[in-house]
Amino acid sequence: MSGLLVMKFGGTSMGSAERIRVAGQICAEQAKQRPVVIVVSAMSKITDLLLDTLRKAEGEDRHALEANLEQIEQRHSTACRELLPADRQGKVLESLHSIIGEFERISQGIMMLGERPPRSVDEAVATGERLSALLMAAHLEATGLRAQAMNGAGLIVTDAVFGNATPLMEPTRERARKLILPLIEDGVLPVVTGFNGATLDGRPTTLGRGGSDFSASILAAVLDAAQLWIWTDVDGIMTADPRLAPNAAVLPEVTYSEAAELAYNGAKVLHPRTLAPLAERGIPVWSKNSFSPGRPGTRISRVVSAPKGPRAVTSMSDVVLVSVEAADPELNGVQVMSRALAALALANAELLVMTSSSYRQNFCFLIRRDELPHAMASLENAFALEMAHGYLRPFDVNEDVGLLTVVGEGMRGVPGFAGRIFTAISRASVNIIAIAQGSSELTIGIVVQRGGLEKAVRAVHDECQLGK
Predict the structure, then answer these.
(1) Each residue's pLDDT tens digit, 310-357
(2) Which of 108, 129, 128 lies closest to 8, judged by CA?
(3) DSSP codes, 270-336
(4) Quick one: pLDDT at residue 357?
(5) Section 252-281 average pLDDT
(6) Radius of gyration of the chain (CA)
């Protein structure tokens, strides 16, 4: 379909009746010019509330469960009454109540079991998106447009890895085109839930971190969209976190690779998985601010006009550095590293940085703090025998660290650049703990003491003149 635009609205863009009204106006304006598909997140904080409700159910805390359910119902019913004229509210309120009732039944089942089966969690946690899609479609209908809420579970086909499913693109392409394209041709705006899908045999799944954006990129890819617009509450991708570097500026354009590296290393932009389907087909994506829709945002595509070199610096403070060292020199360091990486993969931990010493046969790696318990359990299980016999020293965990990453295409081709970075950090009196530079020339990762992370970010940002 020529010129198709997929637009995704995040949680803050759907966070209240006022924000839904703004999102609806954006949709209406674009629908006058081209075919449009809308993808929505849950209202801000609702997914966290749903997950908390399931935890309360598992702990048999009936009072807290009922209080959460009342809060979910109240927030959506209030938005409905503020959005819709009185004669349209009854049917929508009934549908909202029905969806929340399905969630309540799953919660009651979890309370009876005393545990949260992953499949049940995936079905339950997509409730927020279903409620948002219903409200958005109802609002568009009330303004005179034709719209239909659609559950992503009926469109996006995935594998059966509950909580972090991977899309099966060909079945998704067949199903999405069959169900969505006829609606568009008939003048109907599809409003699709982000974040969720289902297996071929219909078992509900979710797409993991960044799942709503991922849903939008999957649909953009299988529908051969011309563009994808992601609406958030920031002006686009910035040269640094403006809270750390006050002179940070919005980047007008970045490559898919730069955006993926920024996201992987802590910037609140599109998750790397979101970009993969778009990069394969060369579909440009725009990151835009629904609170200031007139601002241009950041364009993400294969090639940009900016010169090669550093484009942005990002940081992460919720990380830990784990060191692994052999106590016996006869222990093969390469084998230890291989088994450690396998253990991290088994724990589904993301490896942010890794450095090694060839002489002492030791190495260290950086992971997210919330992944530490599972990662350590997996490592201890993998090396139980070696640790019991003293062949491997106890794992050293340093939680007083932060990660600073400089991102830009072709940085290796800039003479003296790495030296300038290290000198700038040194001038800020910040101690460097570990350094990693990938062969792709895209990133330089630097682990520093957490207390000096903000100073290091400002120093590097200023040294690279990124805000100018």
Answers:
(1) 899 999 999 999 999 888 777 777 889 999 999 999 998 989 989 887
(2) 129
(3) --HHHHHHHHHHT--EEEEETTSTTS--EEEES--SSPSS--EEEEE-SEEEEEEEBSSTTS-HHHH
(4) 73
(5) 86
(6) 24
**Bridge partners of 301?**
255
Question: Mind listing the pLDDT tens digit for each residue in 23-66?
Answer: 999 999 999 999 999 999 999 999 999 999 999 999 999 999 99
Higher pLDDT, 49 or 411: 49
State the DSSP string of 408-458: -TTGGGSTTHHHHHHHHHHHTT--EEEEEE-TTSSEEEEEEEGGGHHHHHH
Q: Where are the domains of the chain?
A: 5-233
For residues 154 and 275, the model is more confident at 154
Residue-wise over 130-141: b if at least 16 C-beta within 10 A, else e?
A: bbbbbbbbbbbb
**Bridge partners of residue 447, in order along the sequence:** 403, 434
Helix (H/G/I), strand (E/B), else coil: 403: strand
How far is CA 388 from its chain centroid? Answer: 39
Does residue 234 have a pLDDT over 80?
Answer: yes
Other CB atoms within 10 Å distance of the CB of residue 105: 11
CA distance 124 to 105: 9
Q: Which CATH number describes the domain made up of 5-233?
A: 3.40.1160.10
Residue from 406, 377, 225 nearest 313 by CA: 406
Strand partners, 40: 9, 193
Asked if the model's pLDDT at residue 218 lies above 80, the reply is: yes
How far is residue 137 CA from its own chain's centroid?
Answer: 24
Please state, in angstroms and rounded to a whole number, the distance separating the CA atoms of residues 364 and 300: 33
Q: How far apart are CA 285 and CA 272, in angstroms?
A: 13
Cross-strand partners of 143: none
140 HSE (CA, 13 A, CB side): 28
Confirm if 120 and 111 have CB atoms less than 8 A apart.
no
- 385 burial (CB, 10 Å; 0-12 / 13-18 / 19+) is exposed
pLDDT at 439: 58
Closest CA to 345 of 369, 321, 376, 375: 375
- According to DSSP, the β-strands at 432-437 and 396-398 are unpaired
Collapsed DSSP state (helix, strand, coil) of residue 359: coil
- 405 DSSP β-pair partners: 314, 445
Secondary structure class of 188 (helix, strand, coil): coil
Burial label, 144 (beta-carbon count in 10 A; 0-12, 13-18, 19+): exposed
Tokens 């009454």 found at:
81
Judged against a pLDDT cut of 70, whether residue 440 lies above it is answered with: no
State which amino acid sits at residue 379.
L
